[in-house]
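Quick one - first record:
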Amino acid sequence: MAQDYVEKIFDVKADGHCGFRTVTYSLGRGQDAYIKIRNELHSDLLAQKNFYLTQGFFHKFDNMAKQIQVDNDKPCGIDHWMSMPSTGHILVEVYNRPVFYFCHSWSQSLFPSTCGPNDNPPIFLALTGSRHFVALKMMNESLFPAPQYEKKWEQIATPEALKWRDNYSRLSELTNHLKLEIGFWGIDF
């Protein structure tokens, strides 16, 4: 059902960097600035190590740091592919915007835990059945069936950050309505 709310799917180059390419595309930087995105995420991860460890989203911090960092722009193997929702937790903090991740097996809405709502547009991305990330443009960025949000987020979010949940409450209502109406909230990108 989520795909019924998608206006356009942006296919990016499939070279192992596709997840990061979707982020750069979503941020309006085109798909080729993915090395810069990787570097920004890696730098923040290292600079805010204690913050990310206390959040409890990463079981193996060093593995996450190695996964994000690459030495060149050549195609990369699975060890450097984007891992969701783990990378999503870094994305929301670095870029101060929600990330809506769609996948046939597990989808997630991720919100920043340290800043309140702002005018930064969300990042929408999906993992296809062939394990390729694509960027999404929703018909309406304020009304679409949203995946469940990380329950642990409520425990770590600042009071200001918890307002993200209120800003997107209509999405949860739509999602629940559709689940009741069709019995299953299927995603197939």
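second record:
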Amino acid sequence: MPELPDVEGFRRVLARSAKGRRIDAVEVVDPGMLRETTPQALGRALKGKRFGEPRRHGKWLIAPVGDAELLMHFGMTGALEWRPRGEDLHRHDRVVIVCEGGELHYRNMRKFGSVRLVRDERERRRATGPLGPDARGLGRTEFLELLTGRRGSIKAALMDQRLLAGVGNLMADEILWRARVNPRTPVQRLGRTRRERLHDALGDVVRESLPAGRVPHGERWLTRVRDMPGARCPRCGTSLRKATVAGRTACWCPRCQSR
């Protein structure tokens, strides 16, 4: 389930392997992954151009190509791989960008993501929708201001891309577990101390996840045990609980994260 660390890993793949390379062809295996463009229009726009320095905002990968930008969103099961030219396609490859020296394979099993071409900032914002500041490097003051006046549960707030871009279900649960905050707690009931703990936990989770290019399964991580049968808290050993919060399956420790 690609979140900020995963998409940052995909950005590094593109920067390391494809930046500066000429695009020779575009193979759209599944036109249903394209938004507001066609396979023919995408090929005409990209062929002969070179990739610039890619960047990321939240869960969106933004790749400059000539005077346009290629936007990639990975949904729940997307990935980006650099492969040698001419290799057989994986059954979930949806778009292949053939470059000099290799190919970028946009892969997506459940097809919840998208590939788009935009010409300017206005088109990009229309494609991505309103996005809050990126979760990486978010200062404490700004984080506290984002939560001011916010209604609903804290887990819903952390996952709201309009408020804070990049945090998904796994990261939200990990942050809340580290900060010892119950995911169902209304934001308005959180005092300054717990809000500051949430900011510190957010920074730790992002920083420790980036080298792995995913939300890792470290020895002291909730994500390592959350899907195990009879899972117990890595900190206190209490049986973990699960329930639907903000439309997603939340996992927490009833002892460490008491309401």
